[in-house]
Amino acid sequence: MDVDADVVEWSCLPRPLADGGRTYVVDLAVTRASGRELVAVAERPENFSAPGWAQEAAAERGAVLRIVPAADLAGDRLENSRELLRYAKWRVSLSQRIVLLAALDQEGSLSLIECMSAVRNAADPIGAVAALALRRFVEIDLDSGPLGPETRVTRFRG
User: Fold this and answer.
1) At the top level of its lineage, which domain of life is listed (predicted)?
2) Taking 70 as the threshold, does the pLDDT of residue 1 lie above it?
3) What is the pTM of this model?
4) How does pLDDT run across 92-118, given as a tens digit for each residue?
């Protein structure tokens, strides 16, 4: 969620949906620019749909209940996100940020290795680029394969 440009905020394990004595546990509460959703991750196909009362309870909270198969969460995006998240507390100097943003403004997009060259004076150039992505200054293509030198980076436009 931290690397999804459409996500405004999110939280884990929000209050369960309830109706009388029934409860339905959701995994995430996600606020997107387009609205709020409650997400339940389902491991088994028989759990790929939610009971009608749970859909109604979500609507009463102003949200849409969405069931996501666990298999949909696997893959390059998840692994790439994990790799970036280790830099969540990384600090990037103002000068490094300005240099990289100026280069992206001039070129439109750069490869990851070109971005690292732009901030080569950082203690860890990949850490600087990752931290800027997590703070939504830049956007890294997480879906086209494992992160590598040729991975495309653009300026975050929200």
Assistant:
1) Bacteria
2) no
3) 0.65
4) 999 999 999 999 999 999 999 999 999
